Amino acid sequence: MMVEGMQGKPSGDYGNEGGGLEHALESGDMNARIKAVKALEKKGGRRSARLLAEALKDESYEVREAAYHAICRLGYEAMPEMMQALKDESFYARMYGALAISDMVVREPDKNYGDDVIDALTQALLDKSIYVRRSAYDALKVIEYNRVFKSLIASLESPDAVVRLDSIMALGRIGDRRAVKALIRALGDVDASVRKCAIVALGRIGDKKALNPLIGALNDPDGGVRKEAAKALGSIGSPKAASGLIQALKDEEPSVRDAAQEALSHIKKSMAARPSPTLKRGGRRPGMPGICVAIEETLSEYSKERQANLSSFNI
After folding, report:
1. Which residues, 6+ apart, have CB-to-CB distance to 207 below 8 Å?
2. Which position among 59, 65, 129, 264 has the lowest Cβ density within 10 Å, counted as fewest Cβ atoms?
3. Does residue 80 share a domain with residue 62?
4. Helix, strand, coil: what percent of the chain each, to 5?
5. End of a domain among 93, 128, 150?
6. 3 state DSSP class of 284
7. One domain, residues 136 and 165
């Protein structure tokens, strides 16, 4: 077989085969066609994408599936061929084309998909096959979502504090972890309301990358910001925040102290609920029980001091 002869050569020599792979895709041997598909995937490039698009119409399910997965691995460079496939008379070409575009969009959400892609997918919404329509809709939904998401991130640089505030609130509701870096930058905003809102959003998203910036926010000059930082750290529930929260129990603002107490209680409960980590030889990991003890002792002392202060106030 033609493909068998080529298989012994390095992939870099395929370009000199004078259309050998193209002929192999027309072989009567299904396995030979699958081998050709895999060779085209390794070779890459627009010509390979065009030949793989043709293989989507193969009579064999196995060949079609191999071609589809090869195109998905090629990624965005196969987009023009997949857009063309959406117009093909073959149901298989349109179905796999829509599926491949949807896969590309999900895998590479940060790419700027142009109007040509949007137009091709919009036309595919009118396809007679529900499979094509559904995949086109899924791709459009992801593209539109990412356009909105990028717009919200860009709005964090607006000179208008209200715009920044609204954008942060929306990002917090969405809960997309890709917003974490931008929200951390917003902790340095000149407006305390914006900083506070960014902290609430970070607490809602719960990404541990925000731990150190949130611990730093416990020293913010604004009491409301410090309070929200304590609450957010409690929501994330990492024992790494314990030291900063213990210090926050001495804050001049009662609301900050109360939020720190509640956060420490939450961390202690969440640690108690977790299975105790063990070392390979069965010994307990050092340090973790000590944090629980430190939190418990600190909270006990804080409660006693608070009761004493309340009693003296009542007198």
Report:
1. 177, 180
2. 59
3. yes
4. 75, 0, 25
5. 150
6. strand
7. no
Number of domains in the chain: 2
User: 200: pLDDT confidence band, cut at 50, 70 and 90?
Assistant: very high
Residue 313 in domain: no
pTM: 0.73
The rounded distance, in Å, linking the Cα atoms of 117 and 120 is 5
Please check whether residues 116 and 204 belong to one and the same domain.
Answer: no
Which stretch of DSSP H or E encloses residue 42?
helix 30-43
Q: Band of the pLDDT at 308, cuts 50, 70, 90?
A: low
DSSP E strands, the chain: none
Residue 254 structure tokens: 């009662």
Token pair belonging to 165: 């505030």
Largest Cα span, the chain: 100
pLDDT, tens digit, 9 for 90 and up, residues 21-71: 888 888 899 999 999 999 999 999 999 999 999 999 999 999 999 999 999
For residue 32, the domain's CATH number is: 1.25.10.10
Q: Are residues 127 and 250 in the same domain?
A: no
Is residue 132 in some structural domain? yes
132 and 183 housed in the same domain: no
Supply 145's token pair: 């979502």
DSSP 135-169: HHHHHHHHHHHHHHHHHHHHHTT-S-HHHHHHHHH
Q: In this structure, are 92 and 191 located in the same domain?
A: no
> In this structure, is residue 37 part of a structural domain?
yes
Amino acid at 266: H
